[in-house]
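In keeping with the milestone schedule agreed at the kick-off meeting, the structural modelling team has produced records for the first pair of proteins. Each record is given below as a sequence line and a structure-token line. The laboratory manager (R.T.) confirmed that both were archived under the project's standard naming scheme.
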Amino acid sequence: MANKKLERFYGFFYGWLVAFTAAMGGFLFGYEIGIINQVFTMHPFKTTFDIETYDPNTDTYTKTGDADDITGWVTFTFLIGAAVGALVVYYPCNMLGRKWTIMLGGVAFMVGVAMETVAGNIATLYLGRVVAGVGVGFMSCCVPLYIAETAKTSIRGRLIAVYQFMITIGIFVATCVNSLIIKFYGDSAGDSEWRLAFGLQFVPCALMLASLLALPFSPRWLAYVGRDKEALAVVSKLRGKPDTSEAVLAEYEEIITAVDEEKAIGEGSWLELFIDPAVRYRTFLAISLQFLQQWTGINIILYFGSDLYAALGFSEDMANIGFPLINSAVNMLATLPGMWLIEVIGRKLLMTVGGVGMAISLALVCVFGEVGSSQDTLDRLGIGAITFILVFTIFFAATWGPVVWVYQSEIFPLRHRAKGNSAGTVSNWTWNAVISKVAPLILADINYYTYLIFAGACLFMAIFALILCPETKGLTLEQVEAVFGQSPAAGRANKSSAAAEVELGELAGESALSAPPSQREETDTSAEQ
């Protein structure tokens, strides 16, 4: 009895440890977001790259005519690099394995960071941003896939959501570190301030690379390349049970069977993602959900929040340090209830509630947030706007932030999973880049209607999720196949929960009659990846 309890504890602890270690890739992306928002407030950075000019006679800084364009490109180049990385990651992911591909992304990120840190002209900075972005693109696509292939069905959603949680931790840590740099290390006469901000990214990246060496390979990938004994050993280690146990052997056999079937059918092509009736609707969902996630407007707050807070009339310290710290902390903490709720109320309801909550919050920001408020109206308008920006952040962090990544990783069949995840992730980075490019222009001439546009987008997202997204909570990947069917038209996606439960109940009953006892006792997601 004691040994069984120890095995269960080890399997539980090790599964979470693997997820958090792999999700360090998300931490690096979050750290980058936290950095760039505050680097844009550093005068030495802005004078180095012609975002503003300094007049020593009057000790004043003047914004250049190209300022909005340059800041947009600094963010845009990183995100385009990430989109390219997500597009091509499929090849190393299958050839080298998920683990080595994540590490390859980490190495690319370090090279890009080095270029950012030593940049003396805008071209070098742009190139460094692209290279770092490619690394993050690798990790953003491969990390959720790796976690899905090592997680149990019962906590699969929570473990994949760890990726989003680590993004928020990265944003918070970077905001704290850079707030200290701004407060105590600011030097208007030199450029060490912003170079230190960029250079410190080496520390978490090096820690991630060292930690990844200790992680196992994906058992599914090991089986795919013919390393069956290693695959069995990894399954045993992940579950905390001996490799002779019935549960481990059953899961191992399921992995081998799934891999053999995939090899017999062949890998799905990129074209099939869009023309195959069995998968094109899922591709539509993955691309659309990632597109809609970006149109919440969250990244305008994350990338350019300091400018937004300053426009509301707050002091420089509050705009550059105070509110970014508060918002990043709220973003991080609000992700935790989302990680719990995703396996309680499900993906569909969480996205629906989140969309409505964000829409209401942004509508109220429209009411309170008169940009360029005079000081006498600041207390009445600015505080109200900030409050509902934070409420908006809570809804995003608990719902659309993590859920989209989880949902995308679950809905594709085995032979299309890597490419399907890549297609959805490319959508995320592409629209992230587009919004980041237009954000400075939006902020330069922002008004009530801007918030109303994003509020309308959030309301549309809620309706989209409610009508078009089948629920996947608590389902094995075979059951997800049953929900979508071989011809997943909108009609099937829209069928009621009751009808879905009847169908899945019949499927479970048939499986129970034919499956051995060990398979009925435990079903693991990694067997299906």
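The second protein of the pair:
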Amino acid sequence: DDVGKVLEIFKGLSWYSLTVFLGLALMIFAIYPLILKMFVRVISYTGFFKGMSPAQTLAFSTSSSAATLPVTMECVEDNLGVDKKITSFVLPIGATVNMDGTSLYQAVAVVFLAQLHMIDLTLGQQLTIVLTATLASIGSAAVPSAGLVMLIIVLQSVGLNPAWIGIILPVDRILDMCRTTVNVTGDATVSTIIAKGEGLLNYTSGRDTEDTFDPNYNA
């Protein structure tokens, strides 16, 4: 009956949202710190998130990498010690093209919508989704819900109905807030790595040998 179908859709949306949340959490709390541990090391796990918390909070509330950009630059420069030469070049570009969270969200959304309509995706279609979601995320504007618009392209790339995006609209706002936070954190991670490589990283706060990624680091 109709009630059963509605409940089934909401159940699917719950699992879809949980999957996206877990993927974004993995990126922000595991993958980015691991990359920092490999390439930077002198910035502590807690120090990085403490330094970026103002930008992450604003990104979560505005769902816009562009609106968060000034605060992101301030956090990366003042709290992480990245030189302004790096932040003024890397972060504006990152706010436009570095949309890791958006790419993950789009790929999961397409697979969810296909499964909801009992459509089996071939390996070729799945690879197409990965490629198209990556390219579409790069082309997404740094404004709220821009990724939802670009999702139409990803759906069409594998022959799915673009109108299906209406199904995920009820949960898109909260997911948009979370993926924007991931995008901003990714921008900060990349700029920190580049600054380290160029010798323009001067991290001075929270230098505790027990907290840093580098156990041999001495303040």
